[in-house]
Write a structure and sequence with these properties.
The structure is a homodimer. By secondary structure, chain A is α/β, with parallel strands linked by helices. The first copy, chain A, is about 35% helix and about 25% strand. In chain A, strand 3 and strand 4 form a beta hairpin. Chain A starts with a strand and ends in a 6-residue tail after the last helix.
Chain lengths: ~325, ~325
């Protein structure tokens, strides 16, 4: 059994065209019938302010399948531990043998989420868009900025509720060779942005419908569970195109759940990202359209990352 | 992170009173409200004749929780690999950190299933019963015989569809210091048995209602998925007491599912094993009653085994 630490995995897979292609294919697998995706498992630890999610699945044709166990224990920082942790197990899809234990501590989730945000945004924004605003200044904002820098020539601005954290993130990005600027005012930044990506744990809308200009594309990645919301419900309702990585998840507990609960959108109004990426469904139609992608996270992405790690660990370069 | 191989785990936990008590408590946890047991995850690989089950959960008060990933790939023996494989991950219930990887290759499942069969049988049979018939000659029959030998003074007989396999099992048990005899004829053996434990992959009933004498207790552990059946539906219907480890599982895809589908029993006719073990529900009432326990396997048992392993690895002796 191959066993890799976070540092080893970081050395094998990062933001580049190969891993982006793996993530892109992971979305397409959902809509072309290749993905076997059982419901996400969940275990709550209310007394410890923690929870655990188990994401697993298989993409037809893949030689491996993956089980990701990710835990969030939100009081951990007080005792010097990270709040998020994770491990990915990779098994042979032909024999069931455990092939690898990826002790990535959540790195692969961060990576695939950042890549997914950029892949979705670049597929749905106007081709000439060059201004991306990232709303949020945490780990996910870092990986989004890295992904946009690797996959596009977008100019990156970052807004954070706490400006000093946004400034620290811009400095950290600079150390990684990525140029970004702090956006001091959220409304002004939204009005200027051609692409907005929200990556916060917000439970109340941050981005108002009135701030978003025609032609803007928004990708929301923060709302991954009940009670979370980053976009004005009116913004979702007025969008010309609503795209989700996995529609059932998005409508149940993602960003689109709120507009659906309010009766403003229905499943029939939405499209899945994989169908847009593969050309089975139409993406943006007009330059002035407002488009929204809601990404709640899907096991096919984890499988794709695990496959990338294994392929590179074995000396190849293919995902 | 602690990492233990099958051989190391075998050296830490085996059939004895301590592990039996842990298994007993695991059943009680289900019925006294301590167990948080999400639905079992399942992933099928029809083209490889394989499947994968993910069992996980937490027992309130436990410092750890466990995720067991068990795969069965039934064409493996043709390429020299075991058909069953498994790994148990143990996490802190206070911080979510991965504490241990138990690469037990299914050993803990075999052990807890054997112990569970003996614990259930001894709780429900007549106190003076001394003759146990094990139907089946595979790995599970071995561990059942070991468990009965460790926990009782029952005389063990073994019937197998292929007599040479039953004889080989009896020889193997002898090497482990356990005395057992081959039962050449299933009907005659059932008519004589005071306890019958079925541990086969049968998809058609093996044990007929007419063969089972008044006062007999039967524990069925083979039917752990749709399509499997070891006991005559009439036998289940005529039993005076039907007990399941987890009633929802048993009625859905365990031994009791067939009698329920035929309209012969209902959930209200059944009791859960933990309630009997803790005294909350009545077990056997009369010496002449026929009692049946159906064990489909529950994650609390896996948690209990993982807890035993960790406790002993850390130098203690408590489960």
């Amino acid at each position: 059994m191959l066993q890799l630490s976070r540092a080893q995995i970081e050395g094998l897979v990062t933001v580049d065209a190969t891993s982006a292609e793996a993530v892109r294919d992971a979305y397409v697998a959902i809509t072309d019938g290749r993905a076997n995706l059982p419901p996400v498992g969940h275990l709550g630890f209310p007394q410890a302010n923690g929870d655990c999610h188990i994401k697993y699945g298989h993409i037809a044709g893949d030689e491996v399948f993956a089980v990701k166990i990710a835990a969030g224990f939100y009081d951990n920082p007080a005792i010097g531990l990270p709040s998020s942790t994770g491990v990915v197990l990779v098994f042979s899809a032909r024999t069931g043998q455990l092939e690898a234990l990826l002790n990535d501590e959540g790195y692969l989730t961060d990576l695939r989420t950042g890549l997914g945000g950029a892949v979705a945004s670049l597929a749905l924004c106007r081709p000439e868009a060059r201004e991306v605003l990232i709303v949020g200044s945490g780990t996910q904002a870092y990986w989004l900025a890295r992904a946009f820098a690797a996959l596009s020539d977008m100019r990156v601005s970052i807004w954070g509720r706490r400006p000093e954290r946004a400034a620290a993130l811009v400095a950290r990005l600079g150390e990684s060779g990525v140029t970004a600027a702090v956006a001091p005012d959220l409304e002004a930044a939204c009005r200027r942005a051609e692409v907005i990506v929200t990556a916060t744990p917000a439970t109340e809308p941050l981005v108002r419908a009135a701030w978003v200009q025609p032609g803007c594309h928004i990708t929301a990645i923060g709302a991954d569970g009940p009670g979370k919301q980053e976009l004005d419900t009116d913004l979702v309702a007025k969008a010309d195109l609503c795209v989700a990585d996995l529609l059932s998840q998005s409508l149940d507990h993602g960003e689109f759940a709120h507009a659906r609960a309010a009766g403003l959108i229905a499943a029939a109004d939405c499209t899945e990202l994989g169908a847009v990426l593969s050309g089975r469904a139409k993406g943006r139609r007009r330059a002035e359209d407002i488009t929204i992608a809601d990404l709640t996270g899907v096991a096919t992405q984890d499988i794709a990352m695990a496959r990338c790690v294994l392929a590179r660990a074995k000396g190849g370069n293919q995902p």
